[in-house]
Amino acid sequence: MARAIWKGSIAFGLVNVPVKVYTATEDHDIRFHQVHAKDGGRIKYDRVCTVCGKSVQYADIDKAYESPEGDKVILTDEDFSKLPAAEKHEIPVLQFVPNDQIDPILFEKSYYLEPDSNTPKAYVLLATTLERIDRTALVHFTLRQKTRLSALRVRDGVLVLQTLLWPDEVRAVDFESLDGVAEPKPQEIKMAETLVETMSDDFDPEQYTDEYQIELQKVLDEAIASGTGKVVSQPEEAPAAMDAEVVDLVAALQRSLEASGRRTAESSGKTAAEPKAKAEPAKKATKAAGTKVTATKSAAKKTAAKPAKKTAKKAAARKGA
Fold first, then answer.
1. What is the reported pLDDT for 86?
2. What are phi and psi of 8, to 5 degrees?
3. Which of 110, 149, 204, 318: disulfide with 24, CB 3.0–4.6 Å?
């Protein structure tokens, strides 16, 4: 783990749980520098004062707030240090709520909490309790002079703190394009549900990869291997033609079901000879049709056999005469 970004304690009633906080996620995006296209020189940014025109060091920069009316207020680090939030090194538990009552849109950043005590009994007690009651603890967490409402839960036996957005930070939505839209037809809903069933499975994040980053890394590796430091142009592929057969929602759903069925068969390694539950009605119809054809052929053979037998009898009679 990287070094802890915060130290304090969880206040669980009268129980105090010392913890260290670590960032739980990391960004794997490939980083780029801005360069001058002409000669490849790095682009640098300079903090310049608009009043005196001089460059300003970061240590000499304060924060300013400007009201909608144009009033300006400048706050220094000393002003921020006087705020109560800046002095908090405690994560107070506010209440426990059912897990499904927290809308996922509120989740922001995630942090791991490590016990910061020689006897982490209180840490294990809190983690075990949260797992048994199937609830999430709502807490206040102050980091970098900013207090957030946060959710405290358990993941693989470790306490995880997830900061939440405040309710007024989630934008209200009202799309006029959804006004007066007709309800989906029963047939469309049924086909959509069937499609969902064919595509349903347990979530396994390991089966998904960031294809963009993989391909980007290949491009960079090839450029480095060429020794030129530039990407060699590749021939562009012709764009795929639009499928003219998909003319409405029902047709699109039907084609999706068919494609999903093919993907399922390929992924499970089934051969064409192996029956599939969803294809049974079609196969029964095919089987019935095959039986009908066989019966027709048998009838034709019997019909053809009767004249042949009569001809043979007549020939035998003439021979005996």
1. 56
2. 180, -145
3. 110
